[in-house]
């Protein structure tokens, strides 16, 4: 397959899906008007003919939402690529391994304590603490066996989910707000927070690409990697932290959006093969496309009612997970 051509196609598809998502909604806005609004915002054209209502819809609601969907989809899919390579298990993703549950517990506690303005920070800290808990539970001396790490992640995820349920139950009437957050929400309007998450994801993507050759060898076998001079445990620590931080950065803003890190890396691996230099880039782009389209579906399928985007990804991801599980057994 022509990889540069595929990457170009994915970039174009990402731009087009973003434009469609910004355009479509209860108030449909033409592409031409969207361009005029952005040009006016950049002071490159006269703003007197701009519909102010449409301008507010585009700049304050849909544009931040689409940007966050792209960043979140990229982060979760790339984290899935890393975790599947490190654990040598196609069923691994940030949702299953427990990092997302840590972010969810942090946000739930912030809501329970009335610290609504600190939800994002609490979610990020929760993801980081979950990461360290999982890593230390799995560590044996200076090594972290991959199967132990996966098992520790699943156990921690179940335990944290129980704490989330208990906290939500004790909150009574505030439980609805927690449940809404846990089902995934891309309506974060703060462009500053979105920019921070985007910077963390971009930095993480660069680190993953730098270590993509090491990932290729580690995914075959750790012993082979050691014979070839790779510091396996060091690489695993760095990439596990990077995957966790990317996940924490986006989950803190969006809530739980599961299965993106499971579906996209697996599909792209079937398309481009196991070379992580290509797989990481294509999964990054495809993850952004997938979540933008999933959010568009969530907003429009029963408009004006909006389905939580995490529900949509779970509806796709649940059957896909069972398919992978069945395929792995056969």
Blueprint (SSEs and pairs):
Elements: H1 3-23, H2 31-41, H3 52-87, H4 94-97, H5 99-112, H6 119-138, H7 146-171, H8 175-182, H9 191-210, H10 212-218, H11 222-227, H12 232-254, H13 260-272, H14 276-300, H15 309-329
Helix pairs in contact: 1-3, 1-14, 3-9, 3-12, 3-13, 3-14, 5-6, 5-7, 5-8, 5-12, 6-7, 6-12, 7-8, 9-12, 13-14, 14-15
Walkthrough of the structure:
Helix content is 77%, strand content 0%. With 330 residues, it is mostly helical. Helix 5 (99-112) runs parallel beside helix 12 and helix 9 (191-210) runs antiparallel to helix 12. It is globular.
Largest sheet: none
Proper CATH architecture: Orthogonal Bundle
CATH topology: ABC transporter involved in vitamin B12 uptake, BtuC
Terminal CA distance reads: 28 Å
| Percent in helix | over 70%
How many discrete domains?
Answer: 1
How many β strands by DSSP? 0
Structural class: mainly alpha
- In the predicted model, the low-confidence regions spanning at least 5 consecutive residues are none
